Amino acid sequence: MSNQVNSMNKGLTVKDLVTTGIFTALLFVFVLVGGVFFATNPVLTFFMPAGGGLLAGPIYLLLIAKVHKRWSLSIMGVIMGIIWFVTGMHWAFALGYLIMAIVADFVAGAGQYKSKKLNSLSYILFSLGGTGSYIVFFVDPNGWAQTMLGNGTEQSYIDTMQATANTGILIAMFVAVIITSAISAFVGCKMLKKQFEKAGITA
Q1: Which domain holds residue 92?
Q2: Which residue among 5, 22, 39, 118 is the one 20 to 30 A from 110 at the CA level?
Q3: For residue 18, how far is the Cα from the chain centroid?
Q4: Is 202 domain-assigned?
């Protein structure tokens, strides 16, 4: 156990940073592909985080298996947050991923990045970061609308969202994210069994 803790506490090497960067790029693509179908529809857009969480689990878990050190997931969240922000997403979407990546980092770190259960929970929490923009939408719809209009979103798109939004949609959004990301993490654990064994990751 002491060797595992010492390994986790060692600083990130250049190789670790490169690996983190590569897997962050892959993760971003998978999240984007999973969520883009929902994002283009003002009625289904609330389920964009669920779509994004469905595909990226194996990539996320493989990153943990490759690096399994503190701050790698946090760095991933910073990079993704910057990318989302500069591509015109609401600031809360970027902030949500950043905050939840840091939370996810500490959750996975609680098991020295060696627990499948904690790593999977970490991914679920990370996926919930995509709800940040929609939380702000429900809390401050007018402010959210002004920000998105400034980012180039059409008024008709926003009007349809506001007409569709209700408490049921908000609850369904969170439930959907948890379910899809849990499925993705489960599939990832099955796919990466040999890689996990090599990295010393257990149930």
Answers
A1: 12-197
A2: 22
A3: 19
A4: no
Can you give the pLDDT at residue 197? 82
Q: Is the pLDDT of residue 54 over 90?
A: yes
Contact yes or no for 25/82 (Cβ under 8 A): no
Number of structural domains the chain divides into: 1
| Residue 187 near residue 58 (C-beta atoms within 8 A) | yes
Domain annotation covers residue 203 = no
What is each CA distance from 185 to 43, 90, 117, in whole angstroms? Answer: 27, 27, 9
Beta bridge partners of 202: 115
Residue 1 resides in a domain: no
Whole-number percent of the chain with pLDDT over 90: 88
| Cβ atoms of 184 and 54 closer than 8 Å | yes
**CB-based contact 49:131 (threshold 8 Å):** yes
Q: Which residues contact 41 (CB under 8 A, 6 or more apart)?
A: none
